[in-house]
Design goal:
Helix content: 40-55%
Shape: globular
Largest sheet: 2 strands, parallel
Distance between the termini: 32 Å
Radius of gyration: 21 Å
Strand order of the largest sheet: 1-4
Number of helices: 13
Number of strands: 4
Strand content: under 5%
Structural class: mainly alpha
C-alpha cells in the first residue's frame, strides 16, 4: 500500500495563524519585508544587515540585531519560519509580549552574535558571514532543553539514558550534517546562550518585571493592542481579559464549552 502524506486541515491552520500573538506576528512581518526587499538589485540587503565579522564596528552595530531577520532566498525564509513560529509563539505565550520583544530584540540576538564574532574573528581569524532566524530557533531550543531537563533529566533509547539537555546539540549535529552551508558555530553559540538563559545566568539582562508591568498599565497595551500577551497571564489570560461566569447554562444549552547559504564567504543559520 502506497504511503500517504499527512493532510493539513485548512481550518485548523487558519485558526492557528489567527491566534498567533503580537510579537510573533511582528517578527514574521519583518522577515517577510526584508525578503521582499531582497528581490530588488539596487540594495544588497544581506550584505547590509548580515553578521559579517570584519564589517562590524561602532558604525554597524545594528548588524547584531538585523542578522536574524535577513535570509538569502525563499527556501531559507520558509524553513526557518516553519521552525521558528511554534517555538516563538509558545515563548511569547509563557513570558508575555513585552518581555519577549525586549529579549529577542536585545540580548538573545546580540549575545549569540558577540560569541560568534569573538570565536570567528578573534580566535579563528575568519570572516564567514551568517544570517537567519534559526539563531532564535536554537536559542529557544536551549532554553526549552534546560526546562525539560529539570522536569525529566533523562530519556531512554534502548538501554541508553541520554540527558534531556543534550537534544539541541544532537539536532545541531544533524542539521550541520544534512543541510549544506549551515553555520555549526553560529548555531552552537545560540544553543550556549539558550542554556545560559535557561539556567538563569543571563536573566539579569531581562528588564525587571515590575517595570514592564508599569509600562503595560501606563500605556494600556492590553486594551490597545490586539493579540497582546500580558505579563500577568493568570489574571488576563493569553489574549486579553477572559470573561468568566459561574451561572449555570441556560435550559437546553450544551454542557460543554460553547541557507544560511554562501554569500561570498557567508553561511546561513538554519536549513
Amino acid at each position: 500500500m502506497a504511503p500517504t502524506l499527512p493532510q493539513i486541515n485548512p481550518a485548523r491552520f487558519q485558526k492557528y495563524v489567527f491566534r498567533l500573538p503580537l510579537f510573533t506576528r511582528i517578527i514574521l512581518l519583518l522577515i517577510a519585508i526584508f525578503w521582499i526587499l531582497e528581490l530588488q538589485s539596487a540594495w544588497n540587503v544581506p550584505a547590509w544587515g548580515g553578521l559579517v565579522p570584519r564589517e562590524v564596528n561602532l558604525g554597524t552595530m545594528y548588524r547584531l540585531n538585523t542578522y536574524p531577520l535577513i535570509h538569502l532566498n525563499f527556501i531559507h525564509v520558509l524553513l526557518n519560519t516553519i521552525a521558528l513560529v511554534p517555538l516563538l509563539e509558545r515563548f511569547e505565550a509563557d513570558h508575555g509580549t513585552l518581555l519577549s520583544a525586549a529579549l529577542f530584540l536585545g540580548p538573545l540576538s546580540t549575545l549569540p552574535a558577540a560569541a560568534y564574532l569573538l570565536i570567528e574573528r578573534v580566535i579563528l581569524r575568519g570572516n564567514t558571514a551568517v544570517m537567519g532566524a534559526s539563531v532564535w530557533v536554537f536559542v529557544i531550543l536551549g532554553v526549552e532543553a534546560i526546562k525539560a531537563f529539570r522536569a525529566n533529566p533523562y530519556f531512554a533509547i534502548g538501554t541508553n539514558r541520554i540527558p534531556t539537555w543534550s537534544t539541541p546539540l544532537v539536532l545541531l549535529v544533524f542539521v550541520a550534517a544534512l543541510v549544506p552551508n549551515t553555520s555549526f558555530l553560529g548555531h552552537l553559540c545560540s544553543v550556549g546562550v539558550g542554556y545560559g538563559y535557561g539556567l538563569g545566568y543571563l536573566k539579569f539582562l531581562a528588564p525587571p518585571e515590575k517595570i514592564l508591568r508599569w509600562i503595560e498599565g501606563k500605556l494600556n497595551l492590553l486594551g490597545r493592542l490586539p493579540h497582546y500577551v500580558s505579563m500577568d497571564q493568570k489574571t488576563y489570560g493569553r489574549y486579553g481579559v477572559l470573561p468568566t461566569s459561574n451561572a449555570p447554562p441556560a435550559s437546553g444549552a450544551a454542557d460543554g464549552p460553547v541557507p544560511m547559504t554562501y554569500l561570498a564567504s557567508s553561511q546561513r543559520l538554519g536549513p
